[in-house]
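pasting for ref
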Amino acid sequence: MASSSVSSFVLLRAGLPRAALRTVALLGCLLAWHLATVQRVDLGFITFRNVPSPREVAESAWALARSPLVLEHLGASLRRVFIGFGLATVVGVALGLAVGRARWAEDTLLPPLEVLRPIPAVAWIPLAILMFPSSEASMVFITFVGALFPVLLSTVHGVEAVDARLVASARSLGAGRLAVFGEVVLPGALPSIVTGLAIGMGTAWFCLVTAEMISGQFGIGYYTWMSYTIQNYADIVVGMLFIGVLGMGSSALVRRAGQLLMPWRAVQEARR
């Protein structure tokens, strides 16, 4: 019986394009959500009695889409995310390349960064409010902190994973330090850097929403928190879905940019 189910899944997977399969997966989750809310499923440790149904959430999403405030909420969140993420990209990649290539940078920069890394971005919020004159700057800083360390560590690991034999071969052919860095180290580390950027973008959204809940006036996180305070549960789910879609879309943009920077990867995947 189990082997029959596995075979059916394999046949289904082979006969469907990837986009169609992913759509089916999303529709399956939507159906499960609908059934759980309509049937008021109560398993004891989790209950769906008070969870809004997909129809209620869709109605709330449509009401928000028609509201003039939707552009202010989206614009505020997108601006904060991309400014913080952009700063984290520049600082994280630069520090990661330095730490990965220079022993002096590893000895002087990595220890304090490792001390700061486990501190959650949420814990920075009170200090950020004290350090920056405006709540806008403090929210951008929280976003920057959240995205910085995934980018930094992925860059360091990417640089360290470059095959030393490739570096030695380039040097034996007469390549200088800059040529080795630009032609061997950076291309070799680029896949890890792009992965770190994609992770950092998701973390940036997580941290931004938390910051907006505390000190924002506009933004998706602020909208979600205000919906909770007035007990509008459908709007809470709308805010959550907006965050998920925006985070997924922005991470996809980062991965797409990485593909454009690494055309050789597309060739390798096409040969598989």
